[in-house]
Design goal:
Keywords: mRNA processing, mRNA splicing, Nucleus, Phosphoprotein, Repeat, RNA-binding. By secondary structure, this protein is of the alpha+beta class. The protein is built from 4 helices and 12 strands; from the N terminus they run E-H-E-E-H-E-E-E-E-H-E-E-H-E-E-E. Among the domains are: about 70 residues, RRM (RNA recognition motif) domain (Alpha-Beta Plaits), CATH 3.30.70; about 70 residues, 2-Layer Sandwich (Alpha-Beta Plaits), CATH 3.30.70.330.
C-alpha cells in the first residue's frame, strides 16, 4: 500500500470531491481529511505513483493542490472503510480520470481476444508490470480489442515479448505493435520522469 499527501486543499473540500479528483487511479483504502490538507491510502503503490505524477498542481474546486507521497505515519481516526473507485468491470473502456488526462505516445500495442469483462484499468495493471503505461483502452473501437501505449520503445518491446500469448481474464491474448500509429505524440508538454518501478 502507498499513502499520498494532499496539500492546499480548499477549506470546504469534501470526501466526494477527493473521490472525483482521484477517480480512475485505482483502489482506495482510506481517505482522511484535515483542515487544509489530507491523506489518501491506495492499495497499490503504482496507483499512488500515477496520481502523484499526474495530479500534483492540478485544480481541485478552485485551488491548485499539492499531491505528493506522505512522509509520516498513518493518522488514527478520520478515515473511511475500504471502497473501490477504480471504475473496473464490464465494457467500461472509455472511462477516464476527469483530472490529469492520459498521455498519448507512438509506442502502442494492439491487444486482441480480450474478455468482455476486462476493463482498461485491468489492461493497465497487467501491462505496467513490464513498463511505464501512459494510456490504455479496452473495447473502445471494437469489442474484444484493446490498446496500450508506453513511455518508451523498450517498454513496448518488453511487453510484447513477455505478454503475447498469455492469459488475461480467462482468455489467451495476442499482443503486437500498432504499426499504423505514426502521428506525433501529444505529450510534448508533459514532463517526463525516469522509471522507478522494478521489472519482474
Amino acid at each position: 500500500m502507498s499513502r499520498i499527501f494532499l496539500g492546499r486543499l480548499p477549506r470546504d473540500v469534501r470526501e466526494s470531491d477527493v473521490e472525483k479528483f482521484l477517480r480512475g487511479y485505482g483502489k482506495i483504502r482510506d481517505i482522511s481529511l484535515k483542515r487544509g490538507y489530507g491523506f489518501v491510502e491506495f492499495d497499490d503503490h503504482r496507483d499512488a505513483e500515477d496520481a502523484v505524477h499526474d495530479l500534483n498542481g492540478r485544480d481541485l474546486i478552485g485551488e491548485r493542490v499539492v499531491v505528493e507521497f506522505s512522509k509520516g505515519r498513518r493518522s488514527e481516526g478520520g478515515g473511511r472503510d475500504r471502497r473501490d473507485f477504480s471504475g473496473r468491470g464490464g465494457r467500461d473502456g472509455g472511462r477516464r480520470p476527469i483530472y490529469g488526462p492520459p498521455v498519448r505516445t507512438n509506442y502502442s500495442v494492439i491487444v486482441e481476444n480480450l474478455s468482455s469483462r476486462t476493463s482498461w484499468q485491468d489492461l493497465k495493471d497487467y501491462f505496467r508490470k513490464y513498463g511505464k503505461v501512459t494510456y490504455a483502452d479496452a473495447h473502445k473501437k471494437r469489442i474484444g480489442e484493446g490498446v496500450v501505449e508506453f513511455e518508451s520503445k523498450d517498454d513496448l518491446n518488453t511487453a510484447i515479448e513477455k505478454l503475447d500469448d498469455t492469459e488475461l481474464g480467462g482468455r489467451r491474448i495476442r499482443v503486437y505493435e500498432d504499426k499504423d500509429r505514426d502521428s506525433p505524440p501529444r505529450s510534448s508538454r508533459r514532463r517526463s520522469r525516469s522509471h522507478s518501478r522494478s521489472r519482474s
